[in-house]
Amino acid sequence: MSDKTYDSPASSLDGLLFDRMTIMSGGFGLSGNPESLIPEIRNSGVKDLTVISNNAGADGFGLWMLLESRQIARMVASYVGDNKLFEQQYLSGELELELNPQGTLAERIRAGGAGIPAFYTKTGVGTVVAEGKPTEIFEGEEYVRETWLRADLAIVKAWRADPAGNLMFRKTARNFNPNMATAARITVAEVEEIVAPGTFDPDCIHTPGIFVDRVVVSTINEKRIEKLTVRETETAA
């Protein structure tokens, strides 16, 4: 069994980054972001990136770092909210945005990993989402054709891995990460813990190691709360 572990987030990206590449970055809001790998991409100085992710982080967190450094030229995403810098760069024309319905984005990524170049969906029919795209009628209903998404590199965040790259995710941090791991030429996974070979029950592996090229222990695990809501303390009568 080959050992895919690396000593640091920086070393796990060594030789993989180049200008104008396409990167898939896992995460949903503040959950499951590759927090340790993103700063190393920033530090590398690569530019004119196309980044595929549900959103571009939040103010001061996640992919926001690459927006601040002006390294992202194009985002393929489904959500712009809670990130003022993302909004400003798009509205000013500094950043190109391909906005997708969230389910369509997820399916385009899954299709990329499954080797399915295109599929049809009703989502977006009759809206700007369908402009310029072929449509077909199936059983009397109109569907729009969407194409797969693939990338040069996927960076994902998992809970645990073994040295062979088998991954387990924890609860909602799973989100887009498993599909992205299958849809890129190279996948680098940062994990909270690397366990001994044979630790995992095969039935509990979410992403098989065949899809993962490099594994590194994460150095940042903030686990932020995106929107904290608390109940006001009731005053005793």
Structural description of this entry:
Strands 1, 2, 3, 4, 5, 9, 10, 11 and 12 form a 9-stranded mixed sheet that branches. Strands 6-8-7 form a 3-stranded antiparallel sheet. The longest helix is centred in the middle third of the chain and has 13 residues, at 102-114. The protein is globular, with a radius of gyration of 19 Å. It is 19% helix and 27% strand. The chain has a single domain (5-115, 149-217), classed as 3-Layer(aba) Sandwich (Glutaconate Coenzyme A-transferase). The protein is built from 6 helices and 12 strands. It is α/β, with parallel strands linked by helices and 237 residues long.
List keywords for this structure.
237 residues, 19% helix, alpha/beta, 9-stranded mixed beta sheet, Glutaconate Coenzyme A-transferase, 3-stranded antiparallel beta sheet
Report Rg: 19 Å
Amount of beta strand: 25-35%
Let me know the average pLDDT: 95
What's the CATH first level?
Answer: Alpha Beta
What profile does the largest beta sheet have?
Answer: 9 strands, mixed
**Domains, number:** 1
Relevant CATH superfamily:
Glutaconate Coenzyme A-transferase
Elements, N to C (H/E): EHEHEHEHEHEEEEEHEE
Rounded to the nearest angstrom, the distance between the terminal CA atoms is: 67 Å
Helix content: 10-25%
| CATH-assigned fold name | Glutaconate Coenzyme A-transferase
* Stretches with pLDDT under 50, minimum 5 residues: none
Per DSSP E runs of 2 or more residues, the count of β-strands stands at 12
User: What is the helix tally?
Assistant: 6
Secondary structure category: alpha/beta
Q: What is the overall shape? A: globular
The assigned CATH architecture is 3-Layer(aba) Sandwich
GO molecular function: CoA-transferase activity
InterPro entries: 3-oxoacid_CoA-transf_A, CoA_trans_fam_I, NagB/RpiA_transferase-like
Protein name: 3-oxoacid CoA-transferase subunit A
Keywords: Transferase
